[in-house]
Prior knowledge:
The complex is a heterodimer. Chain A is α/β, with parallel strands linked by helices. Helices cover 39% and strands 23% of the residues of chain A. Chain A has a 5-stranded mixed barrel. Chain A has a 5-stranded parallel sheet with strand order 7-6-8-9-10, with helices on both faces. A 4-stranded antiparallel sheet of chain A has the order 12-11-13-14, with no helix packed on it. In chain A, strand 13 and strand 14 form a beta hairpin. Chain A is rod-shaped. Chain B is an all-alpha fold. The chains are: A alpha/beta, B mainly alpha. Chain A binds chain B through residues 130-132, 134, 152, 155-160, 262-263, 265-266, 269-270, 272-273, 276-277, 279-280, 283-284, 287, and chain B through 13-15, 18, 21, 25, 28-29, 33, 35, 38-39, 42, 45-46, 49, 52-53, 55-57, 59-60, 62-63, 66-67, 70.
Amino acid sequence: MEPAQLVVSVSDCIALVNQTLDAAYPALYVEGEVASFKVNHSNYVFFDLKDGESTINCFMTVYQMRMPLEDGMRVRVLAVPRLTKWGKFSLTVKHVAPVGEGTLKRAYELLKKKLAAEGLFAQERKRPLPHWPEAIGVISSTQAAGYADFCKVTATRWPLAQLQTAHVRVQGVGAANDIIKALEHFNAQATPPEVLALVRGGGSLDDLAIFNDEHVVRAIAASRVPVIVGVGHETDETLATLAADVGASTPSNAAELVTPDVHEVLRRLELTHQRLAEGLHNALKAQLQFVVHQRTNLTERLQAQLVQLASQLTSYRQLIGQLHPNAALRRGYSLVRHNGQLLRGGQDVQCGDELHIETNQAIINSEVTHVRPKTNQLV
Amino acid sequence: MSDQKLTNLSKQSFRDVMRQFESAVAAFDEADLDVEAAIQAYERANTLLAELEKRLKNAQAKVKTITAQQ
């Protein structure tokens, strides 16, 4: 039967055409300008891709849209051409990438604004890097100069750190997914590295586009391990750098930020050692001075007490001297004894008794001739 | 911190040893340490410092080798 005589249903016709398209063009790169962009039900994206003469309808899901789109942008899509069941020709888009500096910049600005509004770049989210890292996860292409620079600087600054490397593509189709998988891999480890370093060397806006990929930026922000991003040259600021805990200007700068300098750490330890030794020496010296001072103080106090005691002794001696009976004799008093005993009252004395009177200079023997009581007596 | 922890220093991470050293220095710097306590804190800090210096000097030697090879 000749093809012209082949009779099929509408559905079969569409199916036949799609089979032919699948076989001839399983996927196509198509470049054009975006028009009539819209998102339905927050999930489905529809837009037209056009050039000067023609227009094709495009369809994709929001998840596949790795960059913001708006009318006027020039993009390249990887898509599968199909006829819909309504007979409409369209491209089912698998991947879309900006084309040209203008589009790249515009996409960057739109995404930056969107993610900033969500707080992904907020300073409060930034975590400090560990001081003396012992395990660093490196996400980079092992064939890239940026990776070599990072490893060299890390090794010469802080050889105590072990590097765990996840080799990824750092540009082109598939690179974004590589990076996301590497981040997920390190984060899933039971003992992940203490910091992750995402590094690559310089390149054009197009080369660095994956570091402005929305999913890559979100994966960096979601990492439970602190992330440092060192991509490109000094003037390149990617959204990945903004979302990271620390942004470095280059891979070498990232290595400097993530590692201490072993010589500097040793020098500071030596200074601390000197300070401790001086501190101990000063503390002992202060204690010794305190003890010496206490000893001097004690000696002085003892001496003062001795002087005081000597003075008291002298006073007591003087007092005792004054109380001695000889002092009374020197003042003109006499001691009278009757039968060998000192005579105090005189009631027992009778006429004819012998009395011995002791003065300061003599002892007088006398006889009692008369005794009469005294009217004003001393108690 | 027990003496047992001081004897297992070689098995501990650099960060753990450094943190213990910083704590020992802080204890030494605190006021009202008597002479015995000051000497003990100093001895402890010295032991930790020796371990840190050993590791760092090994690292310095590695750096020298790497630099010489470049």
